[in-house]
Design goal:
This protein is an alpha+beta fold. It has two domains: about 35-130, Alpha-Beta Plaits, CATH 3.30.70; about 130-203, no CATH class. It has six helices and six strands, in the order H-E-H-E-E-H-E-E-E-H-H-H. Helix 4 (about 140-150) crosses helix 5. The longest helix has 16 residues, at about 5-20. It is elongated, with a radius of gyration of 27 Å. The protein starts with a helix and ends with a helix.
Length: about 200
């Protein structure tokens, strides 16, 4: 099929321009490289924006984010550790972040270091445990985020009520009743779904 004359002239013009022009390349390392704002670079955690839900670790296709629950210390904590050396910088962690600001991709593209800690980025969040069985319920910041999102609907769940009231200093710690047998008094307490069901079935 014969091309139109105008299109042939345009193609010839581009070919001649490319033939006599200098090749374009960046002058790195003589000059620092500045990526475009849309560049998908190294992900970084935002300590204030992260709620510790662990969604980033669940959706990571390269499994480079570890969600580690440490219950041995005085306060149980969840540590989210991002291993940069295994990251493919796909952006799924940022896309599926629950709070939409817990982890963001930066324009950092040069990742060099001399020790393993240089290739790790982590954030630590305090966990909330069940007052009856000690099971992990979730990160406290995650539950506070739920309270703010649900508004008055949060008062349908005793755990969320107590989390919001502790933030307002309206509830005290140390009111847990450790017992293997579900008690009626445990209904208004911080409980995991399994223990909540047991106490709700008490007549």
């Amino acid at each position: 099929m014969k091309l139109p004359c105008l299109l042939q002239i345009r193609i010839l013009k581009l070919a001649l321009k490319s033939l006599f022009s200098r090749p374009y390349t960046v002058k790195f390392p003589a000059e620092p490289f500045k990526p475009i704002p849309q560049f998908r670079g190294r992900p970084r955690y935002d300590k204030d924006g992260c709620i510790g839900c662990g969604a980033c670790a669940q959706v990571c296709p390269s499994k480079c984010i570890d969600a580690i629950d440490d219950l041995s210390g005085p306060k149980p904590v969840r540590r989210l550790v991002h291993h940069v050396d295994a990251c493919i910088w796909c952006g799924q962690c940022e896309r599926y972040c629950t709070s939409e600001k817990g982890i963001k991709q930066t324009t950092e593209w040069e990742c060099v270091g001399f020790k393993p800690a240089d290739f790790e980025d982590s954030v630590e969040k305090e966990l909330l445990t069940c007052e009856s069985c000690g099971a992990v319920i979730g990160a406290i910041d995650h539950l506070r985020w739920l309270v703010n999102r649900l508004g008055p609907l949060a008062y349908a769940n005793p755990t969320l009520i107590l989390v919001s009231h502790k933030e307002l200093a309206l509830a005290d710690d140390g009111l847990a009743v450790q017992s293997d047998v579900p008690l009626r008094s445990q209904r208004i307490s911080i409980q995991c779904p399994k223990c909540r069901r047991k106490t709700a079935l008490i007549v």
